[in-house]
Design a protein that fits this description.
Low-confidence stretches: 1-9
Number of strands: 7
Distance between the termini: 57 Å
CATH topology: Nucleotidyltransferase, domain 5
Largest sheet: 7 strands, mixed
CATH superfamily: Ribonuclease H-like superfamily/Ribonuclease H
Order of helices and strands: HEEEEHHEHEHEHHHH
CATH class: Alpha Beta
Mean pLDDT: 93
């Protein structure tokens, strides 16, 4: 094998939309999309190699309410820590909104793993604090939706930790907002390489496809659950469940 052959890159090219992405993750007080409060958050940019560029932005908020033990056991932030070190929630939510709007205004897609969780909670937090929410966020890249739709029959769970392991993305500090956000971005880039020939060229087109893919996945899950619970209804909506 010649030096020229050795230098040839056989990996699929990274689509243009995946070469510069924003990444976004929240850790919160709970799972209810309308009532959960932000505790920690991350919104940063990644380059084509998955490295953070620009300002490394992570927030710790005082959610005012008590942080349940079930939540603090996951992300490690107790009520005491949040009240002692956290910033006012209104300031944190306002800065998050400004940061994400900045990405969208520059045409940078934002990666969020299970996007309706993060964007819906942020939406209701904005309303709670008298701020204008991002009513039509986009373009958004949701690795969970793409992975579940494009690789429907792969067995196993699809949490971020599972996806990171499958796509060989390091995730050493799960449920840390920055660690999760960066891992989600790198998983999205790995998915972009794997399915490069079958994904659209622009983030806007991919965003629109995910709306339909998410609806199909929700309907499929609802049918599965109704085998044992005829009244089960899957809440629809992507990237917001309002």
């Amino acid at each position: 094998m010649t030096d020229q052959q050795l230098s040839f890159d056989f990996a699929p090219a990274l689509p243009k939309w995946a070469q510069n992405v924003g990444v976004f993750d929240l850790e919160t007080t709970g799972l209810d999309l309308t009532d959960a409060r932000i505790v920690t958050a991350c919104a940063v940019e990644l380059d084509a190699e998955g490295h953070i560029i620009g300002q490394n932005s992570e927030w710790l908020a005082d959610p005012v309410i008590e942080i349940p033990t079930q939540a603090s056991d996951v992300h490690g932030v107790t009520t005491e820590i949040a009240r002692r070190d956290g910033r006012p929630a209104t300031e944190v939510v306002a800065e998050l909104l400004d940061t994400l709007r900045g990405f969208f205004d520059r045409g940078i897609p934002v990666v969020a793993y299970n996007a309706p969780y993060d964007f819906t909670i942020l939406h209701f937090e904005a309303l709670r604090h008298g701020l204008e929410p991002i009513r039509n966020p986009g373009p958004i890249i949701d690795p969970l939706v793409i992975d579940r739709f494009k690789d429907k029959f792969r067995k196993g769970k699809r949490r971020l930790e599972n996806a990171a392991e499958f796509y060989r993305v390091p995730l050493d500090d799960a449920h840390n907002a920055t660690a999760d956000a960066v891992a989600a971005g790198r998983v999205a880039q790995a998915i972009a390489r794997r399915w490069a020939a079958e994904l659209p060229e622009t983030a806007a087109e991919l965003h629109d496809l995910q709306v339909g893919w998410s609806a199909w996945l929700d309907e499929d899950f609802e049918k599965f659950m109704r085998r044992n619970n005829p009244d089960f209804t899957s809440k629809r909506g992507w990237p917001l469940k309002l």
